[in-house]
Amino acid sequence: MLLRLDAVARGFAGRTLFRGVDLTINAGDRVGLVGPNGAGKTTLLRVMAGEDPPDDGRVTLPRDVRVGMLRQEIDPTRDVPVAEEVGSVLVVLDDLEREMNALEAEMERCGRQGEELPAAVIDRYDRCRTAFELGGGFEREARVDRVLEGLGFDAAGRARPLSSYSGGWLMRVELAKLLLSSPDVLLLDEPTNHLDLPSIEWFEGVLAEYRGAVVVISHDRTFLRRHVRRIAELEVGRFTTYEGGYDRYLEQKAERYSQLVAQKAGQDRQIAETERFIERFRYKSSKARQVQSRVKALEKTERIVVPDAVRRAPRLVLPEPARAGDEVLRLEGIHKRFGENIVYAGIDLRVRRGERLALAGPNGAGKSTLLRIAAGSLAYERGERVLGANVRVAFYAQHQLEVLDPDRTVLEEIGSIAATGDVPRLRGHLGAFLFSGDDVLKKVSVLSGGEKARLALAKMLLHPSNFLVLDEPTNHLDVVACEVLERALVEYAGTLLFISHDRTFINALATRVLDVRAGVLTEFLGDYDRYLEKLAAGAVSVEVDPSGLSAGMPAPPPRADASGTTTKEERMAARDSEKQRVRRVQKGKRRLAAIEEEILEREERIEALDHDLTDPEVYQDGDAVRIVEAERSEVRGAIDTLYAEWERVAEQIEADERDANSD
């Protein structure tokens, strides 16, 4: 056991955020902490880290266990170089190196003077050197460079001072420090929020090899599906754990929700019957004892609370936009620079009606610059931007959160842009963005970052537009809000041009991906997964035309004979290949079913072991606890191995089925 919470409660400003939180974290655990914005997830992480005390309950942390938390508050004014700041977490190695240098100087002095070297000096030097080597002391600069490079810092960037970076990049510095310090328990609050897609892929690789326990808050559904094996949910003050991955959590949550609705209906009927009995016999002396008994029972009844159904399954319907021309946007020969930094030197881009075009590539490559030029909000030096016939652009950028009027209520803020005909539907529109009931009367000044993002999106989408340009629309949104927006945009009849680091969001929407890198645009048909496959497989030859627009061309088809048709031998080989592919798919699906059964059996065993750990006869017996935790660690390791095999088999099946569809 690395960390345990027993009946932990915490409140803020007179409101209880959560109570009765029981959670045990063991080595190798991967726990996703989910729930709506404002539910208290970050507060719970701070309690686990020891930064905030619980109002009630107990946090148990063994003396030798180190907990590291990704900090959100960073001093942006420091002039320390990035590499030096990140390397500061390895200060213990500096102390060891200084001691080794002093011991080496002593040994050298004894050698010069012909003195016998004290055994204590030799012994201490050996111990220091061993600790230095095990801590990676001889390669610490390389370790710092590797981590920073993986998070997107080039050599020049690693030498720049912290004060020259924005908040998002400073978050990367803190993440680098945390990864280098290698605590036993990693507490991560939205770690992928400020990472570009290549950095997310690198970070996921590091996390997959990390041996400690991880508790993570994230709205990145792809990240949760890949890395989480248990879900802990905070919702309306209730804390619930679900064994299994993210998709299994969704299934169990739906089942529990249905059960809760049924239980509440039964309780409501029972309460109504009790209240009718009390009202009917309140003044009959012969029934006084029964009435009082029922009154007391009613007072003691813990009412079942069903989470807001509207928040669970809101539906956003975007206004039907006017039909635009076939060509929505044309950029020709665009040149853009910032000072001496040339971002684009003559690029072309065409966007056609109905397309969903996602921009991908590393941070700093110019994606947001291109997006702002496309939206018409950023000037350029040379070139031409042409909107198609009847095109109406709506642009969502992060700065829109800053221009909301803090003195207005939510309803007043959206009302400030509403036409007379919009007024009757304002509350319904806000409800689709998860502002229900009295939420619409909240002042903008008290809204969380996620609530402000939802309000800014609600304002932008109030009126019909046939060309939406979106810069990170899912940032700050919780999973439910992301899914609401995603479903609405899937059904949207207009054209999309967007940037997002949410891979599930991109895959749901994109029909084309445009890689932006070093001033060059490279085009890929399909969603983000298809884009990654083409990059990894090398099945794309990039040709840059004179206009500067790069096009991704698929690999050539199978060789044909002189008549333009495939040979008999090639057709026979193709049939054999197809048969083998079908057999592989069938065998793979059987193996997937078997793996899922094994995972369920082991997860049931985990639940049984967790129950054993709550037994006073067990947790008061140190030997019994160690036996249970050893078995739990072994079962957890087996589950992780099974999940890895499941992903490998599923990927092979998907590849075979995709090849069959493309033939």
How would you summarize the topology of this molecule?
Elements: E1 3-12, E2 15-25, E3 30-34, H1 41-49, E4 56-60, E5 67-69, H2 82-87, H3 91-113, H4 119-134, H5 140-150, H6 155-159, H7 167-181, E6 185-189, H8 197-209, E7 213-217, H9 221-227, E8 230-235, E9 238-243, H10 246-281, H11 288-300, H12 309-312, E10 327-338, E11 341-352, E12 356-360, H13 367-375, E13 382-387, E14 393-396, H14 410-415, H15 426-432, H16 449-460, E15 467-471, H17 479-491, E16 495-499, H18 503-509, E17 512-517, E18 520-525, H19 528-537, E19 540-544, E20 549-554, H20 568-613, H21 616-619, H22 622-662
Tell me about this structure.
By secondary structure, the chain is of the alpha/beta class. Among the domains are: 57 residues; 228 residues, P-loop containing nucleotide triphosphate hydrolases (Rossmann fold); 93 residues, Helix Hairpins (Orthogonal Bundle), CATH 1.10.287. It is 47% helix and 19% strand. The chain contains 22 helices and 20 strands. The strands form 4 sheets. It has an 8-stranded mixed beta sheet with strand order 14-15-16-12-17-18-20-19, sandwiched between helices. Strands 5-6-7-3-8-9 form a 6-stranded mixed beta sheet, with helices on both faces. A 3-stranded antiparallel beta sheet has the order 2-1-4, with helices on one face. A hairpin with a 2-residue loop joins strand 17 and strand 18. The longest helix is centred in the last third of the chain and has 46 residues. About 4% of the residues have low confidence.
